[in-house]
Amino acid sequence: MQYDPIKKSLGNVFNRSPFLRKIFYKLLDLLLLRTWHVRKELRQFKKTSGNATHILDAGSGFGQYVYFMSGLEKRWQILGVDVKNEQVTDCNSFFEKIGRAERVKFETADLTKYRAEKQYDFILSVDVMEHILEDVDVFRNMHASLKDGGMLLVSTPSDQGGSDVHDHDHDSSFVDEHVRDGYNVAEIQDKLKTAGFSKIEALYSYGTPGQISWRLSMKYPIKMLNASKLFFVILPFYYLLLFPLCLILNKIDVIKTHKKGTGLIVRAWK
């Protein structure tokens, strides 16, 4: 299934004004379980960041995590990079309109080539690495771009069905744009060590509660929208019915420690 056209359609709706864009970010924060886990990690980083000031969002997409980070700590200077020029232009325009352009910027960049020697205290990469075949090259660039003691935070699918490759009657990934179905813990740790990282922690996310929530809040609605845009009319009623349950499931997933899960949260230090 092609996920990018759905994201583009949603972006076209919510990009009509800064107010609608903020609502879009809020909906993503509530609906996407990975944002619950990532925001938890970002809040924790802020507590321990000391004088950290330079942040890179590697694969910034719609800019929702840059928006969250720029509201979380006003001292941070944040650069978002993405391979899609239209998203970079769109994000620069939005952050200019809301008055954050002095400390937030976006650039077009290929992560397999982007390197800024010892520039950043913290690098964030959310649902990016599963799209890039040359992942070790990217990890090397990230390592080189971090200052000594800097931290990389990665959110990515695990190999336990993170791209829904194990769906009942399908052999391919639910998201066609993925080049791998997901990482296992040992694999991503080995690749990060090869890239030069000295300390690595990997935790599972999307345990049983998260998997149920994801199917209800994301997979089934996206499949409906992919079948027909007419489902935009039905979608508000669908979410009105199931949204409270998804919120509860997301909260449980973030609180619990999971022995296995379809997502990974990985912390790595230089």
Strand order of the largest sheet: 3-2-1-4-5-7-6
Low-confidence stretches: 165-175
CATH-assigned fold name: Rossmann fold
CATH class: Alpha Beta
- Give the fraction of residues assigned to helices: 40-55%
**What is the terminal-to-terminal distance?**
37 Å
CATH architecture: 3-Layer(aba) Sandwich
Q: Classify the beta-strand content into a percent band.
A: 15-25%
Question: What does the main sheet amount to?
Answer: 7 strands, mixed
What is the compact description of this entry?
With 270 residues, the protein is α/β, with parallel strands linked by helices. It has helices at residues 4-14, 18-31, 33-48, 64-72, 85-97, 135-145, 185-195, 208-227, 231-255; strands spanning 54-58, 77-82, 104-108, 120-126, 146-157, 199-205, 263-269. Mean pLDDT is 89; it is low at 165-175.
Characteristics of this structure?
alpha/beta; 18% strand; single chain; Rossmann fold; 48% helix
Architecture blueprint of SSEs:
Elements: H1 4-14, H2 18-31, H3 33-48, E1 54-58, H4 64-72, E2 77-82, H5 85-97, E3 104-108, E4 120-126, H6 135-145, E5 146-157, H7 185-195, E6 199-205, H8 208-227, H9 231-255, E7 263-269
Parallel strand pairs: 1-2, 1-4, 2-3, 4-5
Antiparallel strand pairs: 5-7, 6-7
